[in-house]
Amino acid sequence: MARPSLPNRVMMWTLFAPHRSVIPLFLLLSTVSAHKDWTNSAYPDLRGPTFHQCASRMPDNKPLFICDPDRIFNATQLIRINNELAKVAIGTPCPCQRRSQCSSGYSLNGNTFHGFIVSIALVDNLQMNFHSPSEQQLIDRAESFCKALEGRWALGDCGNSVIVFVWRHYKKMVIWPARLAERYITQSERKAILARVNDLVQNDKWSEAISQVIAEMFEELRGDPESRVDTGTLSLVIAVGVASLLTSLITGCVCAFRCCGNLSPSEEKSLSALMDSSSNFLVGCAAGSLKAKIQIRPSRRTRPPLHSTCAIRALRTRPTSARGDPRRLPHRQLISVLWPSLTQPSFD
């Protein structure tokens, strides 16, 4: 009997043993479907019911800090990097105001408290609406994905979490710190760290790049936070200062208006005239003194300047006060005494 050809044998094996053909077909489809374009909501939750998709092998006696549904790392690399992330968690101080916010609920080498939670999210590709995205569009998409993961995973209770995102298809890496962690890893420090591992990223050495990023962030998270100016408090201080200045100006204007407005029109007119006559009196006295010095031999006897004697003559002819001393007249009576004599025309 002739032996059937290879295509016939494959067909006969498929027809008579269908249960055997389903298994390799399922493995092939599962391998192909594992590398899909992830969305923000479909990506596995590191602390949710879909955490088993993050790793093919779970670490022993340690929580999972890395999610690799596309199996970019092998099992050995994943366990090693997860141990490094656990070291960061127990090796950094608690930055929260209450120590209870740093209680992990699980034990890491006998320690139930943690500091900063650094997690890794790896994807082969993300779902996008652009066929040829620009560099800025890639950055915006990666940051929106990290922001969604920060809200879904919620690994830190006081903003003490950091997500390191790896996008293998476009060879991108993003360090996404939460609100409090950003004070320890500033934007300039993140750019410097990513610049130092850029060669490893471009050569697809993701395991070495991630290990170096974790080591450098570990040193930054154990240091002191960057001092910042509280913009809310600063705005409040500026607003109070401006309000106080305006209040002082308005109060001064009101007081000046009320004080100047209390004078009657006749008093304002008399005061203005007195100031003008005083200036004329000083000018006349200065002119008379200068004329007396220049005139050595006068041809005839000259009378003293009117303005130098008018006040004395007026005071001599004016009735005195009750005490008999004209110098003790009130200032309003003094004005009435001086005013007629100051306004008389002068003569040579």
Automatic annotation (TrEMBL):
Signal sequence range: 1-34
Family matches, as InterPro entries: MOLO1 (IPR033438)
Cited Pfam families: MOLO1
UniProt GO cellular component terms: acetylcholine-gated channel complex
Keyword list, A-Z: Signal
PANTHER family registered for this protein in UniProt: MOLO-1, PROTEIN CBG04600
Name of the protein in its database record: Uncharacterized protein
Organism field: Globodera rostochiensis
